[in-house]
Amino acid sequence: MSKRVWACLGAGLLAGMTAGNAGAAAAAPTPATIDAAPPTATIAREIRALADYDTSGDPQAALRRIDAALARARKAGTVDAADLLLAEATRGEALFWLGRYEEALGAFRDFDARMTALGGPMTPRRADIVNNIGSALSSLGRLDEARIYKLRALELSESLAGPDSNEYAAALYGLALIDYRRGLPLEAIPKVQQAVDIAVAASTRSGRNSEYPTLYGITLSTLQIQAGDSTSAVAAARAAANWADGHLGKDHRLTLAALNALGAALNDAGIYGQATPILRRALDLRMAKSEPDDRDVGYSLNAVAYSLDLAGFSDEALAFYERSAKIFEALPPSSQPMSGANVFGQIARIVRDDGQPERALALNRKALGMARRIASSPDDPEVLRAELSLAKMLISLGDAAEGNLDAAQALLDHVNAAYARRALPTNLDRVAALTLRGAVDLRRGDPAGALARARPAVAALRAHLLDRTSAATSAVRLRDQAAGTFVLEARMALAAGAPETAFDALQMAGMGDLQTAFTSVDAIRDRFGPEADTAIRAYLSAAARLRELHKQQDREIGLSGGDDTGRRDTAARIAEAEEELRALDRRIAALVPGYASLTGFEPATLAEARAKLAKGQALVLYGQDADGLVIMAITRDGVASAQTTIASRALRDLQRRLRASIEEGLLTDGTSAFDRQTAYRLYQQLFPAPIAEALRGSRELAILAPGMLASLPFDTLVTAEPSGNDADPEALRKTAWLVRRHAVRTLVSAASLGKGGKRASPPSGFAGIGAPLLPVTGAQGWSDAVEPALAQLPELPGAARELQVMARNVPGERRILIGAQATEQAVKSASFGKAGVIAFATHGLVGGAYRNLVEPALVLTPPSGSASGSDDGLLTASEIAGLSLDADWVILSACDTSAGESENAPTYSGLARAFVSAGARSLLLSHWPVRDDVASRLTLRTVMAARGRTSRAEALRRAQLDVLGDAAIAGSAHPATWAPFVLVGN
Fold first, then answer.
1. How far is C-alpha 289 from the geometric centre of its chain's CA atoms?
2. pTM (predicted TM-score)
3. How does DSSP classify residue 862?
4. Residues 127 and 263 in one domain
5. Which run of H or of E encompasses 985?
6. Torsion angle of the four alpha carbons 816, 820, 826, 830, in this order, in degrees rounded to the nearest 10
7. Mind listing the pLDDT tens digit for each residue in 379-417?
8. Hey, what's the signal peptide range on this chain (predicted)?
9. How many domains, the chain?
10. How far apart are CA 912 and CA 312, in angstroms?
11. 891: which strand partners?
12. Model pLDDT, residue 520
């Protein structure tokens, strides 16, 4: 009957789909040991057993066994000819798994021809071979021939085994892979989903073919990633990994491939902290095999590299990429996966960011050459991606070498023509390619033409990202990857004299740090009662219908010709579905406090921003791409801009050196040296002469910066060449710190500029929450949604005292919830309307740091016994947004409470945005752990000074200078002591 051959229906193709996915294969059961000189009957049984031999787990070992068995059979000379043919076909499968597709194709075709000559009947086994011929042709890029065999196999399997059989599922799966290779992944997804469902049911019934659900699930996850549906991709990969673990074993090759797929899906969803250990585990298990498969190891190395890369550890990622590239390049040309080209492209990007453009250019050319050599079509997605990367590199170099711009234009013309046929206007690569074509015009001295060319393309992406009907996971993925495109638009706009457009573009470039504090409405569905739950379920259902309509539209776009009436009907149905989703969105906003504030974002106009600035105030925006920084300084009197050409890695290294110097200061209580030269170099990059000059009359700066820049302690920058010894307290006190020149605050968004302000009768009370009972004991319970590692969080010995000291010094009504009283339920039920100052002293967590923690949270004392969704010891961003506050100040003195919505986004968008949504006017957040003897002094002096006519930013500045100048405080001259807090808000 059917055998494991179906598992090889496209392993080579699957292996190269994405950086995070590996070719599927399985550890095979081995035949019984055969004596050195077996009798003829034993040889015949051995040959017949090969018909059901799974070669996928260890194809090299399988090939040796099959060859040995065939040699014995030929020597015996009495084995049935049909049985020998079946064994030869099994040998073809082993060759297929080894990437030797031409040899495998020959074996399959030879079987088909000889079986026909023998007059053998059409059986499910022969249908298998027909399907395998199509698989080999597909892997060789001969898609038209492959499709003929796949369709024939589908008909045969339906008639011979039925539409609920594994044979039928495998043929369907093979057709789906051809759809993918033709550039129609959305055509492939429903076929693969159907194949998964059939395979699960068939394997459950029969107990056989257990590898199929895993293989198909891996492919399904991969295709869903490409479709931008990260949530579904994670679910599919997790299901595949769970099935493999339960049915195939932890060391099975398919299990390891499923782990890689799960890591890739988590990467795509932005949950890098969960992805990396999973991918490292898969790599370790693959390398631990007695004869590790080089290609599989290469895929795993690539996947780990990609995860580290996304998380911001490009140095470590580079080493993994290079090891992967070395493996792929050493493979025979016929076995090289398409992902090999992508690996060289990733290395080129890192090398470029490291300030090595010529080496990056050579690597980009190498990546394109490999992609073109392997691809079955010049419009293959990897070819287009490689052309796009090379064009970007050529534009960056300009005409440093004659013909760079002409070569870039030619590449982009091909890429844009291909994407016009195969991608929606919101496809990120399509938008990037059109924008880069404008960059060619910019380099040629036509900024107005460049902006006119790029603006329509960017406008489509902008509208998609701002549209609340867009799938949350898709928006998260796109916004993180689109920042460079918006920064390029800002460059064009500034060159064309259009500061309004540049201002908007820089806000959009930082959207990943500003928009939403949680990744899905699904995260809040169980917290706000049955009516809200019903509304959210309706929203998710409507969103799913809209995704299906978009898929239909994609399929129609992918067809040449077709019915325009049908396309218009689809477009009309999409418009109706989007309006339905907006109505449901408004309904949820009415039922869930804070929801609209957390999930909405709208850039401010330049005129609005300038009107909100008072005299002596300025707004500074930063955008970062591969070519450096774009900076705008906005005051009531004018707009200034500048660009700094600094490689991403160089800027990151400066920031890390600054942070390392602060970390050293924390360890030594401020007695170590501080790297003032690095602080001065950072100032020169971030405040070049045009910006510094424009800000000369501005006492107070509002900073809007993306990514790592947002977590930079700007107060610690040095505005003039430092003198003296970096370890000398007096030299540090005399340093020209930026805090001496400017009071600094960080904005959640430019639209919030100017909100809040002084009130005639502000609340004067104090509320303090924190010092939770940690670590958790057996009498307490965390929610099942949060992993046990949370229970090991350490206690905070100074937290209770810190809150009590603050309470004694703030006038008005006081409420303190510490220890056993600091529960989530107590916070939610308390009334904070009379508290002008609210302080939390506890651990802060970022979204994705723990399993199923999708949004930032503050740790409180968990309840006794079992936890519930509304009382699990974690006060999440969406729950914070639902509080009713009227506070001038919220103080979060936990470690790194300035962290943002995910592990790779160390910004203020998470907890800060939630508290602003709840009614807080300003937040005082910590960049790093604050010393007990300094925390109260800094916070109290800031709060008390701001109760008069002094602005909040100026109040913090004075408190910092007060500590800096007090020699009686040990280590007070070191920034680690005086600069732990950042002001967020107004």
1. 30
2. 0.73
3. P
4. yes
5. strand 981-985
6. -10
7. 888 899 999 999 999 998 887 667 899 999 999 999 999
8. 1-24
9. 3
10. 22
11. 839, 924
12. 44
457 close to 425: Cβ distance less than 8 angstroms:
yes
Q: What is the pLDDT of residue 711?
A: 81
**Amino acid at site 50:** L
Least confident range of 394-398, 670-674, 778-782: 778-782
Q: Do residues 688 and 770 share a domain?
A: no
Amino acid, res. 390: L
H helix or E strand, kind and range, residue 840: strand 835-841
Three-class HEC string of 82-147: HHHHHHHHHHHHHHHHCCCHHHHHHHHHHHHHHHHHCCCCCCHHHHHHHHHHHHHHHHCCCHHHHH
Q: In terms of pLDDT, which residue wins out, 296 or 184?
A: 296
Radius of gyration of the chain (CA): 31
| Contact by Cβ (8 Å): 984, 745 | yes
Those residues whose C-beta lies under 8 Å from the C-beta of residue 425, and which sit 6 or more positions away, are 431, 457, 460, 461
List of E strands, 754-813: 765-770
Please, what is the angle between helix 253-268 and helix 230-247, to 10°? 160
β-strand partners of 817: 769
Mark whether 197 and 307 lie in a shared domain: yes
Domain carrying residue 848: 758-920
Tell me the C-alpha distance between 754 and 269, whole Å. Answer: 34
Residue 784 pLDDT > 60: no
Among 118-127, 209-218, 420-429, 702-711, top mean pLDDT goes to: 209-218
- Closest to 774 measured CA to CA, from 872, 854, 824, 843: 843
d(CA 298, CA 329): 10
Q: Residue 26: what residue type? A: A
Average pLDDT over residues 785-794: 61
815 Cα distance to chain centroid: 41
3-state secondary structure at position 892: strand
Share of the chain above pLDDT 70, in %: 83
**490-522 pLDDT per residue, tens:** 999 999 999 999 999 999 988 754 333 334 454
In a domain, 91, yes or no: yes
The CA-atom distances, in angstroms, between 784 and each of 175, 779, 867, 877, 893 are 40, 15, 8, 19, 28
- Say which residue the tokens 């790093």 belong to: 928
- For the cut 60, the answer to whether the pLDDT of residue 682 exceeds it is yes
CA 788 from chain center: how many Å? 24
In a domain, 646, yes or no: yes
The confidence band for 310, taking pLDDT boundaries of 50, 70 and 90, is: confident
CB 482 within 8 A of CB 431: yes
Q: Which residue, 138, 141, 388, is CA-closest to 153?
A: 138
Kindly state whether residues 19 and 128 are assigned to the same domain. Answer: yes
For residues 803 and 731, membership in a common domain is answered with no
H-type alpha helices, 423-528: 428-443, 447-466, 472-495, 499-509, 511-514
How far apart CA 741 and CA 691 sit, in angstroms, is 14
Q: Which residues pair with 758 in a beta bridge?
A: none
Distances (CA, A) of 731 to 371, 662, 736: 57, 17, 10
Contacts made by residues 403-410, CB under 8 angstroms, sequence distance 24+: 405/440, 405/443, 405/444, 408/436, 408/440, 409/437, 409/440
Full DSSP string of 281-308: HHHHHHHHSSS--HHHHHHHHHHHHHHH
Domain boundary at 890, 920, 950, which?
920
Q: Which residue has the tokens 């074993």?
A: 249
Q: What angle is formed at CA 802 by the lines to CA 796 and CA 803, rounded to 5 degrees?
A: 100
**Do 740 and 807 fall into the same domain?**
no
| Residue 335 · residue 292 · CB < 8 Å | no
* Enclosing H/E stretch for 640: strand 639-644
Residues 705 and 773 placed together within one structural domain of the fold: no
Strand 617-625 and strand 844-845: pairing? unpaired
